[in-house]
Structures are given as C-alpha cells and as structure tokens.
Amino acid sequence: GAVVSQHPSWVICKSGTSVKIECRSLDFQATTMFWYRQFPKQSLMLMATSNEGSKATYEQGVEKDKFLINHASLTLSTLTVTSAHPEDSSFYICSARNNEQFFGPGTRLTVL
Amino acid sequence: GEDVEQSLFLSVREGDSSVINCTYTDSSSTYLYWYKQEPGAGLQLLTYIFSNMDMKQDQRLTVLLNKKDKHLSLRIADTQTGDSAIYFCAERNSGAGSYQLTFGKGTKLSVIP
Description:
The structure holds two protein chains of two kinds. By secondary structure, chain A is an all-beta fold. In chain A, about 0% of the residues lie in helices and about 55% in strands. Chain A has strands at about 5, 10-15, 20-25, 30-40, 45-50, 55-60, 65-75, 75-80, 90-100, 100-105, 105-110. The radius of gyration of chain A is 13 Å and the shape is globular. Chain B has strands at about 5, 10-15, 20-25, 30-35, 45-50, 55-60, 60-65, 70-75, 85-90, 100-105, 105-110. The model of chain B has no long low-confidence stretch (mean pLDDT about 90).
C-alpha cells in the first residue's frame, strides 16, 4: 500500500516551453501532497504544499506563477513549470500524505 | 527555523554495521524519520520514531533517539551492498496539524564488498 507515482519520470524540453508533472497516489486518498525540488547532491527543498480543492501554499522564494500547482482530486496533483529555463533543470519529487509522507519516484527535468 | 545536520559520507565493509548520525534543532519535533534514496529514485521511508521513544528496532535497522542532545542515529546491522544509497534524516515540524518535513542533506553510504 501507499504507492505514489509520478509521470513523466524524465523530460527534456526547450527553453521557454511549459512542462507538466503529475503526481498520483495509487492506493489511497491524499488530501495533502507536497512538491520538492532536489539539486544534485543536495537535500530536498520543499516548494509547496498542495491541498485538495484549495490553493497551494508556496514556500518563501518559490514563484507561484512559475510553478503552477493544481490538486483537483484526492489522488492527483500536478506541477506545471511555466516558461522553463535551464536553471529550472532539477529533480522534482512529490509526496502524498497518508498519515506519513510517501514519496514518488521523482521526475528529472532538463531544460535545454 | 528548523535545521537538520548529517555527515555527508560513510564507507563500511560488507557484513559490518553502519551507523548514520543526525542532529536536529527543533526540540518540539514530534516524529523523526529515516529515508533511503537510491540513484535516480525517490525516497523510501525506512523507519520513524516518535519523540517519546528512545529506541526502535525493525529487523536490521535500529533507531536511537537522544532527545536531550537532539541526536538521532540509524544503525544497519550486517550491511549489504544493496544498502548503498543516500540516507536522509528528517524531522516533522512542530505545530498543530503540521505534516511538513525538514530534511538533512543526506549521508551517502558506500558498502565495500
């Protein structure tokens, strides 16, 4: 139980395009999902907390217009990186809360 | 704010025990966690301990918590090559209803065959 999936697992895009990443809780309902960003050899940085049916809460320094989060159902949250630039290249990991946080496998984004 | 510190590297021989240490600053943390991350993958919850406990054992894993010193450790007995990974310590932030986690930078465990 408590399986979280992410799609896609990796994506390469051109600078200026937008990329959508999906996070799904497969066998439980998650009222809260979290989005993290991880730089090489670094820890996870919390970007935002996503609650189903309401606006996401962004951490300080994270641009909400740049990183659009939608949590339309209890099993799906999406992160859209708008007008991506090379500095947005990173490993994006989501987690879903079912008492504890269970993490997805991550999405490697490379912006050329 | 909360801060979690870990040593960055640990190298052990296969069959030996590994001990990964972590210190944290938030004295009102309710839960402390250990996650494992293999290359290119997400985080796998290994174990966690409630703040009113001193020790928790789960098969090869032993977690020790010294709340006075705000020190957490993870011991892996009979370390195997498959245990090679990055191990993250995390604390659950205090505050009513808070489920946010603060992570350390991770300890890279290398197991020498």
